């Protein structure tokens, strides 16, 4: 995440990570809040965005984040080496080909060099998770790693265990990899689409003079599904259009609430409410989603079963990716010793059920789901330093 404000000398002030969230929420004059930069790495046509009258490429934006992280780490542990091990997904978000993946790696490499790293090693994130899992093993295993990030789901079949720790890198034991460019963000969008957007006017109508009822345009709600796109709606033309529609809407308070959400830039607060509901449905059969946007309070019970229906398309894509991995590697479910699931979306019961159905509940394992990739990358770096 990057939050950029403007200083008196017109130079942007940059914040990254949790500091960016705090700075953005507390600022009286909002700058730009940019999130999910990795999602744009594999988009060859995305050249960048303008901040404070300067065009920043996606490489430049990632460089800003890396420099902030490097400075923070230097304060904690002292000067850092110029070598780094970097996790990457098997298939980057929005990548449609191997060439798109190469574009993403090239951009990441440039950003890392600009941030001061010269010796750069990339490792697949599921392979890094396998490194972390391997530390608990007393015997060799053939495992399947399911790594669920914010925008990508990656799957790898890997040989791990004590026999693999005798000088050979775990990457040499990778039997096969697969990936699909969706995960947690896609699940969030479904809650926005089914719970929030209808209460802000999607699906309702307005009167177009002299006496014709029209559907409220749906395109603004697509930006709502990515909360950090909400700022794209804060243009005079879009606000004027929504104000005009609200004036003759059949349920005007819903459009007024949508306008309030846009003007007050409440996307982050909405995002937190959506994530809270998603997390709650991992532990309970139902939860209450609640979010107040004057003059509307959205309060709705959500059952896990209906959430599972909403994300059916994403679940099928995950299931198909897993099937392709087994087919291309000619590995049968019986040959897999364990399935290690990591990342936030691995807690979603419907996601876990895909692997239970394929491999049986006894083979499913986890632990340190939110930190295993980082732990594995550190282990890879430590091994390479010897």
Give the domain tally. 3
β-strand percent reads 15-25%
What is the N-to-C succession of helices and strands?
EEHEEEHEHEHEEEHEEHHHHEEHHEHEH
What is the mean pLDDT?
A: 87
| Major beta sheet, strand line-up | 10-9-8-15-16
Uncertain ranges: none
Care to count the β-strands?
16
Number of helices: 13
Question: What level of helicity do the residues show?
Answer: 40-55%
- Biggest sheet features: 5 strands, mixed
Sheet/helix structural class: alpha+beta
Q: Globular, elongated, flat, extended or rod-shaped: what is the shape?
A: globular
C-alpha-based Rg, rounded = 23 Å
Q: Terminal Cα separation, in Å?
A: 34 Å
Keywords:
3-stranded antiparallel β-sheet; 3 domains; alpha+beta; 5-stranded mixed β-sheet; globular; 386 residues; 13 helices; 16 strands; Nucleotidyltransferase, domain 5
Question: How would you describe what is shown here?
Answer:
The chain is α+β, with helices and mostly antiparallel strands and 386 residues long. The protein folds into three domains: 2-117, no CATH class; 139-182 and 313-366, ATPase, nucleotide binding domain (Nucleotidyltransferase, domain 5), CATH 3.30.420.40; 185-310. Helix content is 43%, strand content 22%. It is built from 13 helices and 16 strands. The protein has helices spanning 18-26, 58-77, 98-114, 125-134, 184-196, 219-225, 236-248, 252-263, 267-283, 304-310, 312-329, 349-359, 372-384, and strands at residues 2-6, 12-16, 32-34, 49-51, 54-56, 83-88, 119-124, 141-148, 153-160, 174-180, 205-208, 212-215, 286-293, 296-303, 338-342, 364-365. The strands form six sheets. A five-stranded mixed beta sheet has the order 10-9-8-15-16, sandwiched between helices. Strands 2-1-3 form a three-stranded antiparallel beta sheet. Strands 4-5 form a two-stranded antiparallel sheet. Strand 15, helix 12 (349-359) and strand 16 (364-365) form a beta-alpha-beta unit. Helix 5 (184-196) crosses helix 6 and helix 5 (184-196) crosses helix 9. The model has no long low-confidence stretch (mean pLDDT 87).
